[in-house]
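Figure 3 (text version): structure tokens given as input.
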């Protein structure tokens, strides 16, 4: 992993440790422990994730591993997160390609649920990683009948419908654009510019995986 990847993982681990397992997140029904379980299942037991909602031995094994994570000591879970998925894990390669998008997104899921949160400064998060994640993920997460221009200090990206008549511009820092594009508009500090037709088309679509 590059230094920026290590920095973001360490920052997420530090936030988990400081806030504790019962801390809220912006994800409905999820506290910090639920978020941690999600991350560790993804990184260390990705083959079991589809089995969580399946019957039979496969489903039973997946739910058993999930239960073990939920019951584990919090500090132990934080250390497992710090260790990462390992060099040979396909998830490690995905994270390197995406600029550690999931770490960035879920760190903000945790941070921005706390009272008095403020955006991290430009030196506290890799803006390049966040912008790379926006460019990779927004075409997948934005399902809107409108042309969208995402505008950040690092450049612009056109996403959404290529054939729609209406258009909007969404301005923000890369991290905020990443949150907005993945359906977290409640905590994303962005500015949307466009006429009524564009805004209505935007509202009629969906965002998120």
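Below: residues designed for each position.
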């Amino acid at each position: 992993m590059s230094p920026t990847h290590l920095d973001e993982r360490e920052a997420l681990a530090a936030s988990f440790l400081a806030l504790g397992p019962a801390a809220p997140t912006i994800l409905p029904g999820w506290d910090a422990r639920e978020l941690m379980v999600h991350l560790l299942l993804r990184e260390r037991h990705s083959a079991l994730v589809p089995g969580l909602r399946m019957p039979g031995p496969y489903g039973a094994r997946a739910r058993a591993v999930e239960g073990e994570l939920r019951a584990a000591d919090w500090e132990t879970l934080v250390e497992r997160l710090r260790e990462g998925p390992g060099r040979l894990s396909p998830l490690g390669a995905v994270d390197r390609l995406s600029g550690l998008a999931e770490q960035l997104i879920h760190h903000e899921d945790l941070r921005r649920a706390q009272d008095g949160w403020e955006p991290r400064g430009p030196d506290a998060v890799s803006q390049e990683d966040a912008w790379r994640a926006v460019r990779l993920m927004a075409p997948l997460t934005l399902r809107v009948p409108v042309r969208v221009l995402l505008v950040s200090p690092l450049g612009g990206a056109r996403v959404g419908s290529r054939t729609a008549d209406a258009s909007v511009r969404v301005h923000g820092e890369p991290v905020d654009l990443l949150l907005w594009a993945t359906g977290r508009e409640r905590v994303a500090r962005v500015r949307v510019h466009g006429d009524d037709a564009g805004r209505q088309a935007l509202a009629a679509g969906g965002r998120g995986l």
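Strands lie at 142-143, 147-152, 155-160, 167-171, 191-194, 206-207.
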